[in-house]
Amino acid sequence: MLGSQVAVPILDRETVIGVAIFDGRITGEPLVNGELELIFHLLEQVGLAIKNIWLHDQLSANHQMMAEILRELSGACVVVSRDLAVLHANKAARKYFSRAERRSGELEFSDLPQVLSSKVYQVLRTGSGISNLRYEPEQSPGTIYNVNIVPFQRQTAGLPASALLMVEDLTQSEQLRRLEVETSNLRLVRSMADRLTHEIGNSLVPLSVHQQMLAEKLGRKAVDPEFLKLMERDLADSVKRVTRFTNQMRFLAREAQLSHESFPLSPLIEEAYEEARKHQPAKVGQLKYEPGSKPIILNGDRAALKHALAEVMLNALQANPSDPKVGVHLNAQPAGTVPAGLQIEVQDNGSGFTAEAAQKASAPFFTTRNVGLGLGLAVTRKIIETHSGKLEIPPPKSGQHGLVRISLPIEAPEAANG
Which residues contact 158 (CB under 8 A, 6 or more apart)? Predict the structure, then answer.
């Protein structure tokens, strides 16, 4: 079609990248096979050269794109070769680490702080990257850097050919985080002060009233028995409220168990129920609890766990003040079984938790009642967590009573007896 005699493909040893067309010799003699074979191999070298030029252009373009990306990053990026030469440093890196006396403005490996240069050397020699290293330079107090070092390692090579040092300035974010924590603490303190003032005020009202009436009543020859009975009741209630509040503050402030002892669970549940009844105005109350045939042994701070269970049971008693009933169900799996541990489920006979109450019940100062601090379940959660346990309030279902689940680790019977 083209009026030529020979078409020779140009290969790069993988694909055809072109075709060479020959008309023949000027003399009109045809090309022989040996000459065509030589032309084919020469054109193959041309094809390889073209392929290499194309690959070089692609590599150069990719390198340029990567350099532009690294240059515009807000964090410092430094690429260091195995012979400790700086192959690339973006603007942030030169800003952080360049020495003022260096006129060229280029970054050298010796410009890096000793802490960072030693880590880069370590990565190049071991091939193991370093993540989230916190670095605070001595010459710049208050400055905080987050450092990551990634090795560039070929699959066939044993050690990396280079390493990428990435340094992010966290100073402002750390300051914002501290401000957020301080703000949160201030809100907590304000909420605490408001609740404490309200609760202590409620406890002091009867004390103040009876104190004002005491001189008048005692001034008479015969003290009104009804007044004495009322004063005794109010004083006892106020003392119990202040005592409970004091215990809540003490357990809430603890960061660990004060004592470690082994003790049976059944007496603890009964004592916790009796403690809860002291703070429940109703005269009636019923505990439904079956201890089981085998004793369960707990290990930890007995007083703290008693307080935690008492708070949960008091919450159950308050769910239905006119006819309070508390059910306690145990599910114990000794160590070595899956799942291991003890589950204590405390159920009331009230209307059940709302979705909001189930989600926020263990949060500090959350309460649906007009009295109390709203710390009962928050203190319970703190105590249970210091014993490596968990407090759960399952999502409520329509028509079901409220349920609180406590999970605790327990010892195997032979370990407890031995």
Answer: 127
Here the tokens at position 8 are 């020779």
> Which residue stretches of 220-351 are H helix?
225-253, 265-278, 302-317
Collapse the DSSP code of 115 into the 3-class scheme (helix H, G, I; strand E, B; otherwise coil) and give the result.
helix
pLDDT at residue 127 is higher than 80 = yes
Helix residue ranges, H only, 137-170: none
- pTM of the predicted structure, to 2 decimals: 0.47
Beta bridge pairs of residue 143: none
Among 82-86, 156-160, 279-283, 407-411, which range has the highest average pLDDT?
82-86
The pairing of strands 325-333 and 286-289 is parallel
Residues 6+ apart with CB under 8 A from 113: 97, 135, 137
C-alpha distances (whole Å) from 58 to each of 18, 45, 196 are: 20, 20, 71
Give the DSSP letter of residue 110: G
Distance, C-alpha 138 to centroid of its chain: 30
Report how far apart, in Å, the C-alpha atoms of 352 and of each of 11, 326, 356 are: 80, 13, 12
Annotate 348-395 with DSSP letters as a single string.
-SSS---HHHHHHTTSTT--SSSSS-S-HHHHHHHHHHHTT-EEE-PP
> What DSSP assignment string belongs to 31-45?
PPHHHHHHHHHHHHH
